[in-house]
Write a structure and sequence with these properties.
The chain is α+β, with helices and mostly antiparallel strands. The protein folds into 3 domains: 73 residues, Arc Repressor Mutant, subunit A, CATH 1.10.10; 155 residues, GAF domain (Beta-Lactamase), CATH 3.30.450; 94 residues, Enolase-like, domain 1 (2-Layer Sandwich), CATH 3.30.390. A 5-stranded antiparallel sheet has the order 7-3-10-9-8, with helices on both faces. Strands 4-5-6 form a 3-stranded antiparallel sheet. A two-stranded antiparallel ribbon has the order 1-2. Helix 2 crosses helix 3, helix 5 packs parallel to helix 12 and helix 7 packs across helix 8. It is elongated.
Length: 347
């Protein structure tokens, strides 16, 4: 990123802040009236011309003031010295709402809802990933002579269910034998390790439970081999996209809605955002899709047992209040982390 001298940086920050707040292009007269730069209007106009030539600002039409480009927003975000803070009452209400969740799904839905309300953008909450979890318990429920329901319960509170269809009937007491064998061998292991361990148990097991154990191993492996690595995405506040007058054209709103319908695409976008930092911010053309060139993503990770297991974020317009949005996303990630630990007994 090209370095700016103090005056140009101050003028650029003022343009970003004024444009975010009012949504109208910012002119030199307004800057001189509302900010104390200690220089003449002509000097401000000259600095604005230099900023435009360098690609930090642009003008939407001939006689208008100037608006930030994605490069201008990026400079603003990269030079933030501090983010905003939630009001104490907001933070307390947020934490109380999440701590009152009844189960993991309820917690994640509440998280997406509260984040969308705090930011007025579309909220994105990724459930704890199966491949980063440890197996707490596997339950086998017999539905019929050849039909078994496999319920995976992991240390992050995530529950995954798979239905097995066996080639031959299995007795109920053999189902219970298999359940004990699986949990004795694989309980507490990383879920990614569990399929091979269960296969090893199957290889030395009596013939009457061997096929069932092999099927359980395959079911666990299948849960880890989906295109999204087992990720689940919870969305909140998608209707916010059409509000607030943030987007100039209805086509931009339509593109954002269509993107949010593609879960794999959204998950990859969040991963890309967090590869550049935590919290991470991707702006305009930095996003992977040309359809999102008018948007920005702010995201943060949350942890369980000291390891990152999921993420939260928002998708909104480039014209967002970045300090306030960063504060909201980080506060929600922190509260979600605390609520997850409470829900799973310290997991």
């Amino acid at each position: 990123m090209l370095a700016l001298d103090d005056r140009k940086a101050a003028i650029l920050r003022a343009i970003v802040q004024d444009y975010v707040r009012g949504g109208e292009p910012v002119g030199s007269r307004r800057l001189v009236q509302e900010h104390s730069f200690g220089v003449s209007p002509a000097t401000v106009r000259g600095e604005m011309a230099a900023l435009e030539e360098s690609g930090f600002i642009t003008h939407p039409h001939t006689s208008a003031g100037r608006v930030p480009t994605d490069k201008g927003y990026r400079y603003f975000v990269d030079t933030l010295t501090e983010t905003a803070q939630l009001e104490p009452a907001q933070a307390a209400a947020l934490e109380g709402l999440l701590l009152d969740s009844s189960d993991l799904e309820d917690l994640l839905r509440r998280t997406s809802s509260v984040l969308s309300r705090l930011t007025s953008f579309a909220a994105l909450v990724v459930a704890p990933r199966l491949d980063r979890s440890r197996l707490r318990h596997i339950e086998l429920v017999q539905l019929g002579p050849t039909s078994i329901l496999v319920v995976l319960i992991v240390d992050t509170g995530r529950v995954d269910k798979r239905r097995l269809s066996l080639d031959a009937p299995v007795a109920e007491h053999d189902v219970q034998r298999a359940r004990h064998a699986v949990n004795d061998a694989a309980g507490g292991l990383r879920l990614a390790q569990a399929p091979d361990v269960i296969s090893g148990v199957a290889a030395g097991a009596p013939t009457e439970v061997r096929d069932l154990l092999d099927a359980v191993s395959d079911a666990v492996r299948l849960g880890l081999a989906t295109p999204t690595d087992g990720d689940l995405l919870f969305l909140g506040g998608t209707a916010n996209i059409a509000g607030e007058g943030y987007f100039d054209r209805i086509e931009q709103v339509k593109s954002v809605y269509e993107t949010l319908e593609e879960q794999v695409m959204v998950l990859q976008m969040l991963r890309d955002t967090l590869q550049h930092g935590d919290p991470g911010v991707r702006i305009g053309t930095e996003l992977p899709l040309v359809e999102l060139a008018a948007c920005a993503v702010v995201a943060a990770r949350y942890e369980a047992q000291g390891e990152a297991v999921g993420s939260v974020g928002v998708l909104g317009p480039m014209r967002m209040d970045y300090p306030r949005t960063l504060a909201a996303v980080q506060a929600v990630a922190s509260s979600l982390q605390k609520a997850l630990a409470e829900l799973t007994g310290g997991a």
